[in-house]
Amino acid sequence: MQVKVFDTHVRTRDGRYLHFDVLTSGGDKLQAGRFAAEWLAGRGVQDADIAASECLFCHSEIASPQVAEAIGRQGYSIIPLQGC
Fold first, then answer.
1. Concatenated DSSP letters for 27-56?
2. Across the 84 residues of the chain, what is the mean pLDDT of every consecutive 10-residue run?
3. What is d(CA 30, CA 38) in angstroms, rounded to the nearest whole number?
């Protein structure tokens, strides 16, 4: 399965910096942003907590079995990189 990787950076109002990748089998920047917001909400970070956010298409790659399974189940996979 080929996936799109969106490099995502979030600054929260309380000063935290979160850096993670959103992986999807399709979609665009808006869809990746919705997936990022859903994932953040699951970790207690709501829209009101976010001071700045950027989600940019980075590249495409072949998905690992774990990523493919997560995308099949929920539509996306997240790779936490910094501060997550």
1. --HHHHHHHHHHHHHTTT--GGGEEEEEEE
2. 96 95 92 96 94 94 97 97 94
3. 12
Q: What is the pLDDT of residue 27?
A: 82
CA 33, 10, 64, 61 torsion-angle sign: positive
Q: What is the pTM of this model?
A: 0.92
pLDDT in tens, 5-25: 999 999 999 999 999 999 999
* Amino acid (one-letter) located at 44: G
3-state secondary structure of 63: coil
Rounded alpha-carbon distances, angstroms, from residue 53 to 2, 21, 47, 62: 25, 13, 10, 26
